Write the structure tokens for this entry.
Amino acid sequence: MSDLEAVRTYFSAWNQRNADAILASLTDDGSYEDPGTGGPISGAELKAYVEQLWAAFPDLQFEERSLGSIGPDRAAAEWVMLGTNTGSFRGLPPTQKSVRAEGSDFFTLRDGKVATVKGYFNAGDVPTQLGLNIVVQPSQIGPFKFGVSTEVQTGRLDEPVAFSITTLHARDEDCVQKVREGSRASLIDMLKMDGFIGATTAVIGHRMVTISAWDSLDAPRRVMREGAHAEVQKGMYDGSLATHGFTSVWAKARMNPVMVRCNSCGKMNRDPDEVRQCKNCGATLPDAVPFW
């Protein structure tokens, strides 16, 4: 088999979504690398990587733009990747959005098979097309550490009576991802529960925090006992996911009056009445927003 035929066999295996065929198109020590792998991967690790991608994009296809030899036992291909996000991507629910990404692969070949593949593409293309935020920031500067946060709201305007706070320190990056997936599932459970108002989560390195607001002190008890949250707690208590952690429920001690800015005169209104009329100019104030 010629070098270019070997490359086309490799791409055909991708388009057939056959992980075993991909591995068979490589030499015994063959490896694959792209911006998302963190270095060369092969064997079972490569198989898991491509199957995870197909799970998120079951119709994934590569269209060849160009393919040619660039030297002895070397080849390069330019391609367009197309797919529809109908499965979970990075632990998130499907968006049902279609994506299109352009890239290039560089190959070394040996004995009619692919020895190495090194892929280049813009790693932000697919997340951006799916509507995901891409944040570039340092992990730490002096005493300040940085991370990511998520908010979930029911739209309820009730004043919270209680807050539940769960904090844990994940064992490693793999555990961080497992807890994040469990937390998302837990928040979906919470949206179906009476008494739930909203929640905010934060991930800063291996430290993970969830603060949820409720309309009574008893309301958070249900989430502690059942569903995805209970599964994450189990992983915290048995030491499989975390090195430290705690859960708690806090009662409100004081809520200061709400302040609302008038869009007409710019004045802040303290504790607006139900009519939501500016005390300074009489204009209608903006609609109320959730407390949490």
The longest helix spans residues 173-190. The chain has a mean pLDDT of 91. The first strand starts at residue 26 and ends at 33.
